[in-house]
Specification:
Blueprint: E1 18-24, H1 30-39, E2 53-55, E3 66-70, H2 78-87, E4 90-96, H3 100-116, E5 126-131, H4 141-150, E6 154-159, H5 168-180, E7 187-188, E8 193-194, H6 196-209, E9 216-217, H7 219-230, H8 236-249, E10 254-255, E11 258-260, H9 261-273, H10 277-286, H11 297-300, E12 312-314, H12 316-329, E13 336-337, H13 339-345, E14 370-371, H14 372-385, H15 387-397, H16 399-402, E15 412-414, H17 418-424, E16 431-437, H18 444-451, H19 456-459, E17 470-477, E18 480-489, H20 497-500, E19 504-510, H21 516-528, E20 535-540, H22 555-561, E21 568-569, H23 581-591, H24 607-615, H25 618-645, H26 651-667, H27 686-719
Helix pairs in contact: 9-10, 14-15, 24-27, 25-26, 25-27
Length: about 725
Amino acid sequence: MRAGRGRPLRAADMKKDVRILLVGEPRVGKTSLIMSLVSEEFPEEVPPRAEEITIPADVTPERVPTHIVDYSEAEQSDEQLHQEISQANVICIVYAVNNKHSIDKVTSRWIPLINERTDKDSRLPLILVGNKSDLVEYSSMETILPIMNQYTEIETCVECSAKNLKNISELFYYAQKAVLHPTGPLYCPEEKEMKPACIKALTRIFKISDQDNDGTLNDAELNFFQRICFNTPLAPQALEDVKNVVRKHISDGVADSGLTLKGFLFLHTLFIQRGRHETTWTVLRRFGYDDDLDLTPEYLFPLLKIPPDCTTELNHHAYLFLQSTFDKHDLDRDCALSPDELKDLFKVFPYIPWGPDVNNTVCTNEKGWITYQGFLSQWTLTTYLDVQRCLEYLGYLGYSILTEQESQASAITVTRDKKIDLQKKQTQRNVFRCNVIGMKNCGKSGVLQALLGRNLMRQKKIRDDHKSYYAINTVYVYGQEKYLLLHDISESEFLTEAEILCDVVCLVYDVSNPKSFEYCARIFKQHFMDSRIPCLIVAAKSDLHEVKQEYSISPTDFCRKHKMPPPQAFTCSTADAPSKDIFVKLTTMAMYPHARLRCMCTCNRCTFCICQNFLNSDLLQSVKNKIFTAVLNRLRARVAEWGAVLLADDEGSIIHQVHAISSVEDSIFVESSHGPLFLEARHVTQADLKSSTFWLRASFGATVFAVLGFAMYKALLKQR
């Protein structure tokens, strides 16, 4: 079920077709009614039974194909009747208004027979049809009303005449309406009030429509509600008329010129009681409900294709929606959601989606309440790990309705294949996953909580049953805000495929435990030594006394051997929030897995770090190699020319020229105590030597100038 942008959801979006069955005693006019509808005139000759009639969707008011089926006791068996009852969506019990026997058979035969063939909880809607009204001057409604009050499955009663074509079209319209807009799920005639499921659904709709969360629907909110449900706004006078009707019947239906929840529910009760329950059904279906007043799977889980090696993230429009949702429920404007405010937010959910572990997964304030940043982080985490659940949650909040989008899928960005990122050496992703691996009690939990700015003292207050294996927060890399998602991987001999899948790996060992590093080294060799996933080794609990690790080589030598950054000292035993240097480094490595970035001061943001990273970049290395090759080729060509001129010289001279070439190759870009370039070549004239040295120095100077200019540009850009 997908409602188009701004288009109210019609019953046609819910039902494929409607099947109407006409039953009743012989000679009450069932076949005549069908033939009069089709031919628009009373038939002179009536067959024993009419063939099944199909009315196209474009002819019916609700745009739904309708099948009309006749029953003839003379031509059909009881078994065939039972089969037709089981296939029908609505049954019209026809009686003749001038035949009391046919009226009595409605309760003595037909209603019991139909109810026996249907489930008690899903009774078929019934329409009582009084035919041949042209033969009498009185109405049968006095006799029929007690029957309608006795059987709640009876939707309505219509008196008609096949001969005069009176109410023929209305009869089948009401039959179709009984299927597409049934009264049963909405209203209880005995209690004369809406059913609990209907009240619950309309309450959710009211809370979604109350965009400022003040408990009333103001004129702007009512107009928006009217437009998205019925595709037309209300005139100011019409709004006042609606409010006056509510004020007339209930005292607290309108407050501060806005419609309260009680007034909203009263209006829909009034619609149903006056036979306009299609109005209520239009609203319910626009907000995703089916005939049983459950949110449909098509509404909660719209189609979203995710190719392999791609991830899911929230886009800009989704973050704007979540920001407005947070502001709507942050009543005290403290940029955090208290337990009561969070509970109020989740009133539109059928259950509480977040457990106590969420408070240890995202940032909270000093009271332990989820902050604005933590709120967005949790949604980012859900989108990355379980996008279907994210779609479900956005559906409960009414994302597609309030943003007037086709579905919640419009809130999701599916990133491109990671292989393409590696090929292009750049990424468009904003969320990066880091698997934190290490022995038990090595300090992994401390690393996760440090990402949320919590030192050791705050971590000790976390209950064991409230611990989380995830932590997510924003990290700034070169002025760009990115999300770093940490996942604590439990200690095991071998990691599963899911535990290996990530953007960067954080291998944690305890500096005070001599057996701790061996596990990290073994996991690295088993799973990551030959992979393209960057790894960073973290020396946790660096405030404690460091002991020698029981491994063949030291952690520093291990990193040097495998061309990894040196071990990063880390501790969360600090007075303030722990340092976030390792998280910046991890995010940078995840963003640029192809580059070996080294930051001497570990900030990755200062001018020095930008220069260091640029000097070590593939781009500059490529430029240097091209200049080296060009200069070398030029020198070789010049020496070859000199060799041809001096061919008459002795053999020793040629040997000296060959040595000169080797000497030139070894001396390019190598600093010497005697100068930047030291060339020796016999028979090289002083002018040629000066010319080659000049061009080499000019090329090198231009490269240095470009590097410094780029560094200054980045520094100025960062300040802005």
